[in-house]
Design a protein that fits this description.
The complex is a heterodimer of chains A (263) and B (410). By secondary structure, chain A is an alpha/beta fold. Helices cover 37% and strands 17% of the residues of chain A. Chain B is of the alpha/beta class. The chains are: A alpha/beta (263), B alpha/beta (410).
Chain lengths: 263, 410
Amino acid sequence: MNELRIETKRGIKCRVLEAGQGAPVVFFHGAGGLLAQEPVLEGLSRRFHVYAPEWPGYGGDAGEEKLDDMLDFALHGWDVIDALGLERRPSLIGHSMGGMIAAEMACVANSGVEKLVLIGSAGLWIDAQPVPDIFAMLPFELAQALFADPKAGEKLLTGGIDFSNMEALQTFMVANARRLGTAGKILFPIPNRRLSKRLYRLNAPTLLVWGREDKLIPLVYAERFRQLIPHASLAVIDAAGHMVPYEQPEKTTAEIERFLAQA
Amino acid sequence: MKFTWFNLMPWPHLPEDFREKHRSVWVDIDSRLYDPAEGNRVYHEYMDQLEYADTLGFDAMGVNEHHQNAYGLMPSPNLIAAGLARRTSRSAIAVIGNSIALYNPPIRVAEEFAMLDVISGGRLLAGFPVGTPMDTNFCYGQIPALTREKYYEAHELIMRAWHEPDPFAFDGKFNQLRYVNCWPRPIQKPNPPVFIPGGGSIETWDFCVQNDYNYSYLSYGGYKAAKALMDGYWETVAAAGKDESPYRAGFAQVVCVADTDAEAERLYADHVLYFYNRCLHVNLGFSDPPGYRTVKTIQAGKLNQFRAENQRLFTQLTWKELVDGGYVIAGSPETVRERMEFMIKSLRLGTLFLLFQIGNMPDDKVRNSTKLFAEKVMPQLRDTWPEWKNDDRFWCKPLETRVRPEESRA
């Protein structure tokens, strides 16, 4: 994919992955950041013009200090879209924390979104099914919570870093502190910033994509989203956990592609 | 030298298999391990010990704040301090301190500390920790990446509340108050001396140095492990062009005194091991939530390594290793004096927070160790820094004419 550099009106610089042609689709990544391989984005770029901006705190640029709360994140998302200069209104896709923000963006500006796709989205809280506390997990424990197949997942997550190497671990800790430190502003201590009060505003047709074995934000959350969103359908993907776009990229791509292509 | 007799107030009945059966002494500690009726006895024993230290000539009685923690039974140290203020009138009351980012609004701390300073006749030492991640983030739900900023704002609000004579409006990011007007006001002007207990964040050093606050490194790793860290602090002091008064620095140390070195082991080893092996069993996942430490501090790399190493080592440490490694200073009065003199000089300390009550140590042993120290060690260390003996910037200034309630009781 190509790499664009943009600067928002607020003065935040960020990296944007970009590929393809056609209707614009903007993908917002989750708390773990963009990974080395983004097969779903590449797959979607066969039919759509895909953009994947990196959140502040996740790339080389500073800027995360300008974002404190949910409204800051949602408006930053729209600032990025403004800076991309799209000719048509985009569809939004968000994974995990990115889903939480994309949904918030679509609630705030409910005529600005063509279609909305939420993949394993954060943003709701169910007392009977609490989301595990990723902030109290050690780096080597994350894969267990995120993947249906944790062994294969760990390699995806760390880019193959060996955690027994102190120097590599420290580099990872610094990057992880920035990433999850930024994410904590909207996810800590409970990943609920009252999105449920605003979901009634959504006009855009919405697709929920969930890994059947999601241990972080289990399937019951997909059902709750479906109850709260006026026009939502749900696609459940087998043999996948919270990182469904990385564990089952073909199936994920196919579901999203079908939904976005519908008239 | 200033000697503070410090009590963490640990729960003394953690089971022998605590480590195996429970994942953490802190945050999600099993409430069924606490017995309120026994708690009644324990609180009074611990408060009596603090008062006992006052009678033996210690300079301060020390308390601090922890939440959901079985080795620190003071969610509100101010309650204990209020009790001490009524039962003593001589030594300082070191509340080190209140985690000011946790009080909504933090004007509450300005008010309660003012009350303590007034009731005690100007004996308050005011501690403002940033707060541990366990207390601040996991127990009290503050967002890690915003904790430090919230702390600085709380500090500014409290200081202005103490210093400004007229009501003012405070338009902060975390606190908006239309009428800030602290009543009562502290006796000590412009404010009680401020102590910043810390764990090694570089930003905290800068903050202490800029404001001329005492920086107190509170670890249980002992004086040998603290050397690199305290050197870093003193470099920060020097770089800012400040004087090197030892009263800029404080340190917490576990101390056990007996008639002989062998007797110290016989009397105290079990209780010290209880502390290191059971009380310090904290789930590592609670110790460093992403965003709590700044990138600058993680890159400096000092603390995390110490913590990780300490966590592993504590599980296996023997009495000999604890003593030889300097985690604990224990032995005859002469051994303790010698080690402490080395510690004081090598870390350049003017203020000590000494833990004589440790783990599940029973009252008679605590008092034995405390008394031996007060009589045979403290006098010999008292004048370690003769050239700084008139430096009173970092200590309280009580009213001469203060009420002495414990003397007037019928």
